[in-house]
Amino acid sequence: MSCQDNQTGYGMDAHVEQLLNLSAQTETLIAVYDGDDRLQYANSAFRSAYFIEPDETPLWPDLMRRNFELGRGTVLRTDDFEAWLRSTQSRRGKIGYRAFETDLCDGRWLWMTEAVQQNGWMLCIASDITRLRAQGRTVRQDRDQAIKASYTDELTGVANRRFVMARVDDMLAAARTGGSGCLAVFDIDKFKQINDRFGHHAGDLVLRDFAHRIHQNVRRNDCFGRVGGEEFLLVMPSTSPEDALAMVERMLTVIRFSRPLADSPDFSYTCSAGIAASLPSDSASELYRRADQALYDAKMSGRDRVRAA
Length: 309
Known about the structure:
The chain is an alpha+beta fold. The chain is about 45% helix and about 20% strand.
């Protein structure tokens, strides 16, 4: 390595150290999460607000669950934490940037921003706006709740058709500039028979169970949502057909072992899936059509399987 390389490396290290020192001293909350949503860095202001020990690197869902149970950190207006978590994760990290207001149990009000890279790493920065924006807070809060509801499937709590199709458009825009990705269409097998035999309440339980179990296996940058009836979509940006096929196969295995009906402990169900890889010339409807045709092939070949277009 040349003397110039040494100086460049030294300078870079010095800049990083200076940046860390500055972030440690500021009252602005700063945190970095990796693609698995595990905390990799947080300054003292962020750790203090969310009760994180200096050497602790929790997963975001575990951190939120712990603080919810102890009545601290973010104010969550829900009686069902897991439903709130599923709904929030359906949107968290799915777009490159978002900003929103949030309040803490200690009375502070924060303006939070989330910037996400293609590999799923997320930078979170929050500023205290308690004194700046006290007026109109309820109106803004109601607005944010309305926006959330407009992107959420009411029955299952995952993303709805509107939100997930917007993510299809994002993936196709990336494909036109050299990106890649896949779309999977899921359909619960013989769902009408489940409704006819056990009733629509049981059918709703199966839909919720399916959404919950698939969503637990969705990566940060992927987007999973219900588009109608018993049909769901999974958008997988920057994913090869081979990797998409392996992921969906694992998801189908998870569903096979589910027993969602407490009154019928022996009841089980399956689903079928079709996958299509995005092309630079694709429209959303064309990509959807190919994935749906692959789903049809999976159904015709015996159900409880995945086929690729």
